[in-house]
Design goal:
Blueprint: H1 2-6, H2 8-17, H3 20-33, H4 38-60, H5 66-74, H6 76-108, H7 116-136, H8 140-165, H9 170-175, H10 181-189, H11 194-202, H12 205-209, H13 211-218, H14 222-254, H15 266-269, H16 274-277, H17 281-312, H18 321-344, H19 348-358, H20 363-377, H21 382-407
Helix pairs in contact: 2-8, 2-14, 2-17, 3-11, 3-14, 3-17, 4-13, 4-14, 4-20, 4-21, 5-6, 5-17, 6-17, 6-18, 6-19, 6-20, 7-18, 8-14, 8-17, 11-19, 17-18, 20-21
InterPro entries: NRAMP_fam (IPR001046)
Membrane topology: Multi-pass membrane protein
Keywords: Membrane, Symport, Transmembrane, Transmembrane helix, Transport
Amino acid sequence: MDWLRSVGPAVVVAAVVLGPGTITVASRVGCALGYSVGWLVLLASGMMAVMTIAALYAGVSSSQTPGSRLRQRFGRPATISIGLVLFLIVALFQSSNNRALLLAAEYFIPSINDSKGLSIGLLFAFNAFVILFFLRARDVYKVIESAMLLMVGTMIVCFAINAIAGGVSPGSAAAGLIPTPDSVRATMQSLTGDIRALLATTFSVAGAFYQCYLVRERRWSVQEVKFRSVDSAIGIGTLGLLTLLVMWTAAAALHGKMEPSEVKDIASLANSLRPTFGPAATMVFAMGIMAGAISSFVGNALIGGTVFSDCVGTGSRASQPFPRRFTVAALLVGLVIASLSVLTIESNVNFIVIAQGLTTLGLPVMALALLWLLLDSKIAPKWLVVGTLFGVLLTFVVAIATIVKLVS
């Protein structure tokens, strides 16, 4: 039990990151490229672990909050801008969570695809319920941590069973963990598509940045962080494992049998589960997508609300009034974006991929802020500084790829 409590903060981040977007995008990548880009998931997960550990050191190195330190060094306007960038990233992720609920609802309410009003009404009703729960919960962090520990454990078991029963080739899966010239070339060619979205969901700088606040919630000391860094790496490794299991399952069931562009609704996504669950696959996948959306719904918004509140200077703890208000604001902005998108983008799957990909535009700002906090801490080992710098460079590569996609 002590070990479970120690990995809690990292699992919270992993559960937030492993939302329905990751499941959807990993399925599309597995369908398109098979087992060949497993190494990319390892790279993204490794960088996520590095940035998460960097945030641990940055969070415990000072009695001041990250927002306070940034305001002292760069001024209030620049710090508010940093907080706003993260808030908008979270809002985009939140909009994809909303569309994921509609994706799952396709199974339970078949007529929802024919009624935009029904779709938007369902989103408003669910968000109203979540906001009511959030405002009434007393110790938000403890509730979220306990729920997500259970959720991640359940997902590991379910995805592992399906990977085994689904005919995943151990040899092909292992070979895909080592980059080859062909797989690297395929990755670069797809960097403006699903690959970019996969990197955005697996290498979540916003999620890593929030560790600065989670360790403060847990009141860890510098010595504890040095000890708990391994636990955090294990927690983030769980995220990578789950992503690989989803991708491998899709590779076994879908690669070469259907085009990635055909993976656009709950039925096509559920094909990867049919080896295990047969006719019930669509229902099981719909429940999994819905569980992923719900597990990351409040946690994702809490990241945006807490960090933005701290950057503004109105509080940095989840239980304080302004972080709660800004969290509700993140929920509402995500709801509005998703509702508007229902009117313009018909496919829930396509919107999820687009929204996840657009978040990469703000990653360099968050990565640079985290790098400065780490350097300012003066307690980080050199390997961590070098690793974080590499992570910053990776965010610029992905952001530039996104800009190229938008321009072209």
